[in-house]
Design brief:
Blueprint: E1 7-10, H1 16-25, E2 30-33, H2 38-41, E3 47-48, H3 52-58, E4 61-64, H4 69-81, E5 89-92, H5 98-107, E6 114-117, E7 120-121, H6 123-129, E8 132-137, H7 140-145, H8 147-153, E9 154-161, H9 166-194, H10 199-206, H11 214-224, H12 235-252, H13 257-272, H14 281-288
Parallel strand pairs: 1-2, 1-4, 2-3, 4-5, 5-6, 8-9
Antiparallel strand pairs: 7-8
Helix pairs in contact: 1-6, 1-8, 4-5, 9-11, 9-12, 9-13, 9-14, 12-13
Length: about 290
Amino acid sequence: MQSPKVVGFVGLGQMGGPMAANIAKSGMPMIVYDKAGTKERAPKDAAIAGSLAEVIAGADTVFLSVPDGPVSISIVKEIAAMNDRRARLIVDLSTIGPAAAEEAGGIVEGCQIVYADAPVSGGQSGAIAGTITIMFSGPDDAVAANMDVLKSFSKNVFHVGTKPGQGQSVKILNNYLSATAMAATSEAVLYGLSQGIDMKTILDVVNVSTGMNTASLDKFPKRVLTETFDAGFKTKLLAKDVKLFLENAKGAKTPSQMATVLSSIWQGYAKENPEGDFTLVYKYIRDKT
């Protein structure tokens, strides 16, 4: 597979917009489209398409960054039905779950298009800084041909497999661990506060001890202790990811006892505040008891 001469990008939301901006900053020719309003979200110097069809006709590799599986599937179906296609590779950066990725890969079979499952992790701040992690699952030549593009917005590119769904599997287990850390750290900190210990002191001790985790290192010092609650990831999205992990663990017949409890916590909070920042689960857990 040849390296892309023109990069397409579909979906310019909280994560997609910054990733697309970093690709554009690298100087690669780029065409973008977002159903929610392309002109207002488009990176500087990127060509603006008026439709998905324009992106598919004008780009060699097309990146998708959309909210969930149904949206990804609908876009992939639309692409497969198009006659005027320059694009030969779809790289889906969305978190949609293994089953949806497998379905998307099946849709483009026989269409002379390769679908690569490549979810990302690192939050909005990582997308802006160009330091996110990519879990790429697709043919060897696809990841090799697009490595320069991938490195323009990612510090860590992992080729985790060759089949659609494998990247999703790594992503949902990662987000399950992240959600576990956030919920468990909330309970631990609340216990410490009940004993009259300052939150900063608790975090200082934990972060040089065996309880250290992503929430204690990053989310609590920067988002909870400061009361900014601005990690940039919606509660409903993390609740979706935890549910995906639980469903897939059950399907694989692997242990899921902790995931069952954790999913109930996140689903409960998502019903109350779906659009809120996921770090606000600290207040939900605090006020629920």
